[in-house]
Amino acid sequence: MTGHGAVTGESARGVHRPACAVPRQGMTGHTLPRIVTGDQRSQLRALRETWPHVYALIDEERALALATDGERDDFGSAENGGRGESYVDAQQAHPEARIIGIRHLMALVVGPTGGDRPVVLDLLGGDGLLHRVCLRPDMPDATVVTCDAASFMVARAWAAGVPAVWQRAQRQVFRSGSVDGALLAYGSHHVPEPERQDVADEAWRVLRPGGRFVLHDFAEGSPVATWFLDVVDKQSVTGHRYAHFTADQMRECLVRSGFCTVTTNWMFDPIVVTGTSKRAARAALGRYLVQMYGLDKLVAAHGHEGASMVAFELARRIFRFDGIGNGMGDGMGDHVGECVVERLGPSEWRCVLPRFALVAVGRKPEPPGTA
Ligand SMILES: C[S@@+](CC[C@H](N)C(=O)[O-])C[C@H]1O[C@@H](n2cnc3c(N)ncnc32)[C@H](O)[C@@H]1O
Predict the structure, then answer these.
(1) How far apart (Å, rounded) are the C-alpha atoms in residues 211 and 139?
(2) In the predicted model, what is the mean pLDDT of the chain?
(3) For residue 19, pLDDT beyond 50
(4) Is 75 in the pocket of ligand 1 (CB under 6 A)?
(5) Could you give the angle at which helices 247-257 and 196-206 cross, rounded to 10 degrees?
């Protein structure tokens, strides 16, 4: 493990801030214009109407040249062979199940000083979960821009009140030097290995000097990767054969792009759900897993309720971290290493499924004399 301790940093104040003032993120997200799925022009028009300060950062020519997602896509609709609907259902049923990890990632991408309403790209944004979680007053006051390659996900984001940008992380539509932070998280292993350097290079391009790129993945060989291979690959209609990142690959990618003060560390990134009884909390976790990972074959074999209990049991067995055995050294801190179900009140139980992820952080250097 190549952990280098605490992240160093400086103000996230943007030197390329757009002319119009950046409003609080909560000012959007109510009634949004309708967009046409898969039509970049209508999405750009809607963005210009809703979020002119974000639209101002986009290079229209690049955006209109976007290659459409004609291929089958894991996060597309079920009709097109994907598992997008059930993924979104899971996030909407338990929007705060992953808030511990999201909070940590936001702190890393915004940096210690926060800056003046930084604009952060959520490069694998899905239907806008991170944007919605970041509307909470106790989250950093950043504008989180949901970006996704799947037209289905972008459409679901707009429909849920989150403005979104249709782009591939490998070829982004933002202007060079225009944003304060870029986050590649919760799905980085879906980027094909030969294209991962392109993503880091593009993050470098769109970031302003001093901006941060945060790259997160569940490490190759970790219990979470085992879950994907042994359960998601076998029990979902999409399968799941993707190489996860290693710490060395993350570091190499960021350094090659030119990022400085690159760190790689472990972070606690659990799934937490609640229920009115011990059994209900376990079932809620199982149901979340079935939906999030599209475990349709488990449902076909066991019915909905049975599939939830089987998924819970499989996760309980697989998600076990003991630090040294997982190559994490002392990276676990005081966090739980196995699934716990604990009582919070007379009829409130909480189920915590531990996950540890790798996270690399790099900063785009400022020209000498400007830091
Ligand atoms: C696991 S989902 C994560 C969604 C959301 N961030 C969350 O945590 O719920 C991964 C998302 O990444 C998108 N995706 C995969 N490869 C991508 C790429 N190369 N560029 C942009 N988006 C991509 C998928 O369409 C999907 O919506």
Answers:
(1) 19
(2) 89
(3) no
(4) yes
(5) 50
Q: What's phi and psi for 43, nearest 5 deg?
A: -70, -40
Calculate mean pLDDT across residues 154-182. Answer: 95
What does the block give as tokens for 275? 């229920």
Question: Which of 47-56, 120-129, 294-303, 325-334 shows the lowest per-residue confidence on average (mean pLDDT)?
Answer: 325-334
Ligand 1 centroid to residue 88 C-alpha, Å: 11
**pLDDT (average), residues 14-25:** 45
Residue 126 alpha carbon to ligand 1 centre in Å: 5
Find out whether the beta carbon of 130 lies less than 6 Å from any atom of ligand 1.
yes
CA atoms of 102 and 185, how far apart (whole Å) = 9
* Per-position DSSP letters for 67-87, written without gaps between them: PP--S--TTS-GGGT--HHHH
Q: How far apart are CA 283 and CA 265, in angstroms?
A: 32
Rounded to 5°, the CA angle 101-106-107 comes to 100
Task: Name the residue at shortest CA distance from atom 24 of ligand 1.
Answer: 75
What top-level class would CATH report for the domain 25-268+357-363?
alpha beta
Please indicate whether residue 314, judged by its CB atom, sits closer than 6 Å to ligand 1. no
> In the prediction, which pLDDT does 24 show?
59
Whether 129 lines ligand 1, by a CB cut-off of 6 Å, is yes
Q: Where are the domains of the chain?
A: 25-268+357-363, 271-353
Tokens of 79: 């009709």
Mean pLDDT of 330-352: 91
Would you state the pLDDT for residue 329?
A: 75
Q: Is the C-beta atom of 186 inside 6 A of ligand 1?
A: yes
Cα–Cα distances in angstroms (integers) from residue 132 to residues 25, 37, 111, 312, 349, in the given order: 9, 21, 20, 26, 25
Cα gap 148→150, rounded to integer Å: 6
How much of the chain exceeds pLDDT 70, in percent?
A: 89
State whether the beta carbon of 286 lies less than 6 angstroms from ligand 1: no
Residue 103: exposure state from Cβ atoms within 10 A (0-12, 13-18, ≥19) = middle
Cα of 124 to ligand 1 centre, how many Å?
4
The string of DSSP letters for 166-222 reads E-BTTB--BPTT-EEEEEE-S-GGGS-GGGHHHHHHHHHHHEEEEEEEEEEEPPTTS
